[in-house]
Every structure is written in structure tokens, then in C-alpha cells.
Amino acid sequence: MALRRIVLRDFVIVHELELDLSAGFTVLTGETGAGKSILVDALQMALGARADAGVVREGAARADISAEFDAPPQLAFWLQDAGFEANTEADSDTLLLRRTVDAQGKSRAWINGSPATATQLREAGDFLLDIHGQHAWQSLTRPESIRQLLDAYAGVNAGELDAPWQQWRAAQKSLEDARNAQDTLQRERERLAWQIGEVDKLAPGAGEWDELNAAHTRLSHAQALLDTAHQALNALEDDESGALAGLARAQTSLAGQAHIDPEFQALSDVLASSLAQAEDAVHTLHGYLRKTELDPSRLAELDERVALWLSLARRYKRTAPELPALLAGWKEELSRLDAAADLHALEKAENAARDGFLSQARKLSRARAKAAPQLATAITQAMQGLGMQGGRFEVTLTRLDEPARGGLEEVGFLVAGHAGSTPRPVGKVASGGELSRIALAIAVTTSQLGAAQTLIFDEVDAGVGGAVAETVGRLMKQLGKDRQVLAVTHLPQVAACADAHLVVAKRANEGRTESTVQPVIGEQRVGEIARMLGGERLSGTSLAHAREMLGG
Question: What is the percent of the chain where pLDDT is above 90?
């Protein structure tokens, strides 16, 4: 089984409801207007349906819906990827979904006790429930729904075409834009090429501006620097008053008396170190004077280059240090424009993207072509048992003039309600009863396709009765052997086939109408089947008929 338990608080006209569900085939019945679909509505809300303040019971602060499921193995990977942990409030193999909606329409949701979004509830629901509503036939008029149903039967997913389709469309747009913008692109390329050529004459290197500035500053002040170096050497090397001579005399004097006072030795050592450093400075200054000279021609070159840097920077409204990056950006943009203007390369890329899409689309077409007659045969067989003897179902594949996102063909469903009639599109079948039976035949035929272990049929048997209704019941009971089936029905023939029977009823409580759901067995179930057969006034005949239907 899959759906174990559902708990409602202040949902629509339900005050409190705690319901345990069983495996197999379960029906929900009740009088007209009792709210037989209320559990289906609650489950849809728990699985991410749009929240509305109207679901809050009148006078209550909020509606609270909880649903506990057996967690299918494939859901474990989704939970892990979505960041949800296993359920710690119950058995480790269960999944607990909870949703609240307050009187202002604000919704909150949880998965296994952790906050979740409505989108995440819907994603989890894909693993848990398939709901076939009483207007399920309406989806059979929508091309997208028809195609998805055939693809599911064929075991393929048109979503795999999304990426190659987008790549092809992007390549088409790039080619089209390039064709439409050739003149503009050419003008832009010429402008960039001229700017690049102008700045390329300067060939500004990264970090060059700082080095250029430093060299220019040194040459501009070369005479002052040379004079300063000579003055420093004179102050250090003068025989009489130079610092070197003075330090040497002082150090010698102190060293000569160090044997008398050891403190002189320490001072002598300090002066010896200072003398060595002063001599290093003299050596460095001599080297500086040897390599430094006035160079007017070099200074003129630097003046010219600095002026060119500054001129280009002003022209393009940048600082001088930004010129190398500006030039690199222009060259990169020109490369992009060259690529955009290369129609041959763009045509080649578009053809490659087109071939990639068509290759995958053809694989999908082959799978659809193989599955279409098989699906048609299966649904045709189901129709025979639903009172449409001689009826025929066809799945058509019509080649599109141009490929589309979903593939190379349009999928259509045609139906002939009885022998000798011409198959027509499902949406043009006149009889509402036929539409319901066709939808039911499709639902039964395709019910094993999804991953969900619980199937819910919400009054899909509308418009059928008699022997056909018995067939519907037997089909649902058969489905219930492999999956959990929950059906909302007004047909006693369907209800009698169920493994479990729930009755929805309204009652007055303190001036308010409330809805309840109770399981019925034994004579209570006989009474409910009899009511469905003959109305509120139970007769011996209807009770006997009910017992016969239940095999009792």
C-alpha cells in the first residue's frame, strides 16, 4: 500500500478527521452534496495544490492537512537531493506531508517535519499519487497531454529534447542576428579595429606606466641627484673633516684604552660597525655616480611617450594605467564580432545543432510509432468491456511541417464509439457518457505507467451504469491487487467490488454543518449499498439486492 493515513483539522466542513486507509481497492460513497470528494481535495492540497483561504472551515483560524505514505524507494534519492531527512516521527519507511492554510490564505508546508515549498510537495506527489478526475476526458483534447500519455506508454520522455532544442534555437538566433546585422557589425568592427590600431602604436604594457613614470622622474631630476651624491661623498671622504676620518680616529682612541676600561671596548665595537656601514655607503655612492649621467635625448623620448599615454587616456576617458586593459578588452570584443560576422561558421554550428536535435527526435518518433498501435489496441480492448462493443480507438501520428519542441509529429486520439462509425477526435465525441468511459478505459490501460503506488478515481464512472458499472468495479478491483486504488463513486456496482468501503455524511453540530467519513462493514455496508440502489427509503428488495451484490 502507499497512503496509510490522512488527518484533517478544520478543512472546509470537516472539523476533525483521522482516517487510516488500507491496501487494495477502497471506495468513498455518500449522499449527493455530502462532500464525497473532500478527501481527494485534501490530498491535492497536501500535495501542493494552490492554497486558498476558502478551504478553512468557517470560524477556524487555519486548516491543517497531514498525509502519511509508505515512501517508495525511488523517493529516497529525491529526498536526499532536496535536503530532506527520513521521517523521525514514525517508521523510517514512511513519508509525512503536512500543509496548513490560514484564514488569510497564507500557506505553510512540511516534509518529514522540515519546512518545504508547494513546488516540493508537488514533486514528491509525483512519486505517490495519480489522480484521475471526473473531467479526465478534458485533458484528452489537449495535444500536450495526449503526447505525454503516448510517450509514457512508449517509455520515453520528450523532455530529453529540451536541451538540444534550445541549442538549435540559440544557434538559429545567432545566425539570424548575424545575417540581419552584417552592416552594423561591419561598422562596429571597423571602429574597433581603428581604435585598436591607434592604441597598438603605443603598445602599452601591463605595469609599464609605473616604470615609465619612475624613469621619467629620475631623468628629470638627474642633475640634482648627481649633485646630492657628490655632496654626500665629500661629507664622508674629506681628509680633515669627513665622517670616515672622524669615525676612524674615535674608534682607534677608544680601542687603545679598552684594556684599562672594558666599557671602551663596547663603544669601540659600535664605532667599528658604524665605520663599516659608512664605507658601504661611500662604495654605493661611487657606483651610483658611475652609472648615472645626464641623458637629454633619453629624457626627450620619455617625455614623448608619457605625453602619448596621457593623450590616449584623455581621448578614451580612462586613466593612463587603464590603457592596457582597455586595449585587451577591445581585442576580445573584436574577436567576438569577427566570430559573429563569420556566417559560414555560424551556419555550420546551426546545422550541427539541427542534426543533433533531429537525431534524438527521430529516436523518439520511432518509439512513438511502435507504441501507438499497441496503445490503441489496449484501449480498444478496454472499451469493449465498458459497454462500447465494436468501438475502436486509434492513435495517430501526423508529421509536422516544421520540427517542434516536442518532436517531429503531432499525436492525436481518435475514437469510434460503436461498430461502423468513423473514428473522430476524442473532443468531438458527442456523448458525455462515452467521454467518461473512454477516459476510464485510458486511465485503466495506462494506470501502470506512473511511479505512484496510489491511484485515485474521482467519479470517473459518471455516465455509466448497469453491466458496464460492474465491469468498472471489477477493473478497479483488479488494479487494487497491484496498487492501492481509492475511488469516489455513486455506483453501487462499483462500491460492491471494493475491498474497503468509506461513507461520507453530513451532520449538524452546534448549528454548523460538518462532514464525517466512516468505514462501514457488515450490515452497515449492506445498508449503504441498498441506499445507493434505491434511495433513502430502504426496502427488503433493495437490502436483498445489496446482500447479493456483496456476495452475502
Answer: 30
pLDDT, position 397: 96
Which whole-number Å values give the CA distances from 524 to 29, 80, 520, 530, in the listed order?
A: 13, 45, 5, 10
Q: How many CA atoms lie within 13 A of 259 on its CB side?
A: 2
Cell of 395: 492513435
**Would you say residue 106 lies in a domain?**
yes
Range of the domain at 527: 521-552
Chain length of the chain: 552
Distance CA 380, CA 430 (A): 18
Flag whether pLDDT at 91 surpasses 50.
no
Q: Which of the listed residues 290, 325, 341 is the one where a domain comes to its end?
A: 341
Q: Provide the 8-state DSSP code for 240.
A: T
Torsion of CA 201, 206, 208, 214, to 10 degrees: 150
**Which residues are CB-neighbours of 475 under 8 A, at least 6 positions away?**
382, 385, 440, 444
Residue 456 in 3-state DSSP? strand
- Rounded to an integer, the average pLDDT of 359-378 is 96
Residues 103 and 234 occupy one common structural domain: no
Instruction: State whether 279 and 198 are in the same domain.
Output: yes
Distance from chain centroid for Cα 320: 46
DSSP string covering 195-231: HHHHHHHH-PPTTHHHHHHHHHHHHHTHHHHHHHHHH
* This model's pTM is above 0.85: no
List pLDDT tens digits, range 57-90: 988 999 999 999 988 887 888 888 888 876 655 4
- The answer to whether 259 and 268 are in contact (CB under 8 A) is no
How far apart are the two ends of the chain, measured CA to CA in Å? 27
Partners of 486 in the β-ladder: 26, 456
User: Is the sign of the CA dihedral 254, 257, 258, 260 positive or negative?
Assistant: negative
